Amino acid sequence: MHNQHVIGQQQELQQLSQNPQSYLQATNQPLRVASNDFFTIDPYRKRKDQSRISVLQKYEILGYIAAGTYGKVYKAKGKSVNNLNNLYAIKKFKTDSKDNEVIHYTGISQSAIREMSLCKELNHQNITQLTEIVLERKCIYMVFEFGEHDLLQIIHFHSHPDFKPIPELTLKSAIYQILQGLSYLHQNWVLHRDLKPANIMVTNDGVIKIGDLGLARKFNNPLQSLYSGDKVVVTIWYRAPELLLGARHYTPAIDLWAVGCILAELLSLRPLFKGEETKMDNKKQVPFQENQLLKILEILGTPTLDKWPSLNNYPEYSQLSKITQFPSNLKAWYQSNGGTNKNCLKLLFDLLEYDPAKRLNALDSLDHKWFTENPKPVDNIFANSKFKYPQRKIQKDDNDILGNVNNPMFGNHHGYNVGNNANKRAYAGMGVYDEQGRKRVR
Predict the structure, then answer these.
(1) Which of 2, 44, 258, 357 has the most CB atoms at less than 10 Å from its CB?
(2) Contact by Cβ (8 Å): 65, 392
(3) What's residue 337's pLDDT?
(4) 3-class secondary structure, 239
(5) pLDDT score recorded for residue 82
């Protein structure tokens, strides 16, 4: 019976192929003929494009926040039923375009791919939450939850126009939440590699959000070594000494060094190691950052082989040996900046330990004595604070997210220039500018 059924099907297919019109009439089946271009890519792409919901249909663009090497960041408000009036930060990756026409499509940058892939996998209260990724008109839009503040903005508020120390509860809670987020990243085999105040967002509810994972890397079984993939990581003022000494292999300890620098900056309201960066030459050889290392030596003292046994294995050790010897001055620096808590100073020493093998890790740091004594860290870093921080500044004269120069709805498109110094700071979670208003070097 089975063979007869198969033979019958084969005969029907043969009749259909020889004379489809008469076969369909005899069997009372309607004739369905696809157009000649039905199976080509263009009609398919057109149908997909028509089915997509545009960025501007989902979100109302409130203003333009900042710009940098990799794109622009906009503040937006939800328009659909599911996200009505919720605030978002939309990061648009820049394309090679002219008058909104893509003249040379170069694909997706390595940084963008990393950031998208990692953000989609990570889920923690102290990590910036990625809401969705939108592909439209050969542009990529990453939609994040919006943070009204960042630590750089808060530091600036407390240091200008007059000096106003950050309350201990705010400072301690901020550092604790940073370490919570960092512990989550490290336990999931992710190095951040660009921690700094500008990349630490704070929501209106006082919750810390670590952002900008554009330089982040998975460090378990990487396809290529961390150094060969990115020879320069971490903004210069927050770069760990092993990186300055040319380390080819490094660990999550580089992120803890950056946290130590951030803690010191929140205490003194100015960068702890404010060195001058030596730029890379045309041959793209990584230069020895002597000035930055000198700033570290002046406060922490000169490291020795007794305290850092692997010190002489670093490529730039010979350069270090040529620099004048310095004693440790961190305790004196701490006291000169109004520091009195011994446990806070101990945490600073533990995070700024020269030897990365001895440096405090993120998980253990959460049990540090400073966090167990009163006042204990809280979920809202603004709790009991008398300070009211201003909202993030946005520009409303340049919020054409689609780059349509002829669209009167958004006014004229002004390219990627930033109009004032406030917006030259990195939008936390986007990290497109450093503290000096310079485009960040990847």
Answers:
(1) 258
(2) yes
(3) 95
(4) coil
(5) 83
DSSP classification of residue 259: H
Residue 180, both tokens: 């919570």
CA 341 to chain centre: 32
pLDDT above 80 (res 23) = no
| Cβ count near 422 (within 10 Å) | 16
As a whole number of angstroms, the distance between CA 427 and CA 91 comes to: 10
Place of tokens 């076969």: 23
On whether the CB atoms of residues 276 and 265 are closer than 8 A, the answer is no
Round to the nearest angstrom and report the end-to-end CA distance of the chain.
70
Does one domain contain both 143 and 156? Answer: no
CATH number, domain of 365, equals: 1.10.510.10
**Residue 174, C-beta contacts closer than 8 angstroms, at least 6 positions apart:** 151, 200, 202, 208, 266, 381
What proportions of the chain, in percent to the nearest 5, are helix, strand and coil?
35, 15, 50
Q: What is the residue type of 392?
A: R
In this structure, what token pair is assigned to residue 5? 């059924």
Same domain, 160 and 298: yes
Mean pLDDT of 237-259: 95
Residue 188 pLDDT exceeds 80: yes
The pTM assigned to this predicted structure is 0.80
Range of the structural domain that residue 236 is part of: 149-372
